Amino acid sequence: MAKLKPTLVPDTFWNAIVDNDVCFDDQFFYGVQTTGIFCRPSCKSRLPKRENVRIFKNAYVALDENFRPCKRCRPDGLNLPAEEWINQVAGWIDVHFTETVALETLAETFHGSPYHLQRLFTQFKGQSPLAYAQQKRLEKALQLLQASDLPIAEIAGSAGFGSTAYFITFFKNSTGLTPARYRKSFHLTGRGMPNGQAD
């Protein structure tokens, strides 16, 4: 994904993006820094924040800047390979897993259908996008339980779980231990899991 940098989008180009103006499709492409995807002005994808938009004179400049073509509008006829697209989605989840991760929002952000995203993500990652996000939250919770003395409620919030009660239930279902017992076991054995069970 492209490194974020300050950007200034001229009003004419911004208005074309807002209006999905097909008349500008041959004049420029725009990339969204937070997703690393670039589109035609006429693309019907979710409107990005103006400060995250980069303007490119053609698709090849966007590719040189490490942006990838939108799967919805396919700028210049280019198509992002499915596995690379899913890796982009997974990379976004790796950074944003503490936020609310909804399938519809992911699909809209990465310019695909929820069904298509769910199917391909499961195919390449072995689990759904939401299960992948939950796994990342669990990994974060394990890390905090091992390395800090934070209260369980604070760990739940820091790892992206909506409530402490849900966190405790999910954690126990996933590991066989409550968070408190896991922490105690880890500090006693250095492993966290009884009987040599893997984390």
Automatic annotation (TrEMBL):
<dbReference type="GO" id="GO:0008168">
    <property type="term" value="F:methyltransferase activity"/>
</dbReference>
<dbReference type="GO" id="GO:0003700">
    <property type="term" value="F:DNA-binding transcription factor activity"/>
</dbReference>
<dbReference type="InterPro" id="IPR020449">
    <property type="entry name" value="Tscrpt_reg_AraC-type_HTH"/>
</dbReference>
<dbReference type="InterPro" id="IPR016220">
    <property type="entry name" value="Me-P-triester_DNA_alkyl-Trfase"/>
</dbReference>
<dbReference type="InterPro" id="IPR004026">
    <property type="entry name" value="Ada_DNA_repair_Zn-bd"/>
</dbReference>
<dbReference type="Pfam" id="PF12833">
    <property type="entry name" value="HTH_18"/>
</dbReference>
<dbReference type="GO" id="GO:0032259">
    <property type="term" value="P:methylation"/>
</dbReference>
<keyword id="KW-0238">DNA-binding</keyword>
<keyword id="KW-0010">Activator</keyword>
<dbReference type="GO" id="GO:0043565">
    <property type="term" value="F:sequence-specific DNA binding"/>
</dbReference>
<dbReference type="InterPro" id="IPR035451">
    <property type="entry name" value="Ada-like_dom_sf"/>
</dbReference>
<dbReference type="GO" id="GO:0006281">
    <property type="term" value="P:DNA repair"/>
</dbReference>
<keyword id="KW-0808">Transferase</keyword>
<dbReference type="GO" id="GO:0008270">
    <property type="term" value="F:zinc ion binding"/>
</dbReference>
<protein>
    <submittedName>
        <fullName>AraC family transcriptional regulator of adaptative response / methylphosphotriester-DNA alkyltransferase methyltransferase</fullName>
        <ecNumber>2.1.1.-</ecNumber>
    </submittedName>
</protein>
<dbReference type="InterPro" id="IPR009057">
    <property type="entry name" value="Homeodomain-like_sf"/>
</dbReference>
<feature type="domain" description="HTH araC/xylS-type">
    <location>
        <begin position="87"/>
        <end position="185"/>
    </location>
</feature>
<keyword id="KW-0804">Transcription</keyword>
<dbReference type="Pfam" id="PF02805">
    <property type="entry name" value="Ada_Zn_binding"/>
</dbReference>
<keyword id="KW-0489">Methyltransferase</keyword>
<keyword id="KW-0805">Transcription regulation</keyword>
<dbReference type="InterPro" id="IPR018060">
    <property type="entry name" value="HTH_AraC"/>
</dbReference>
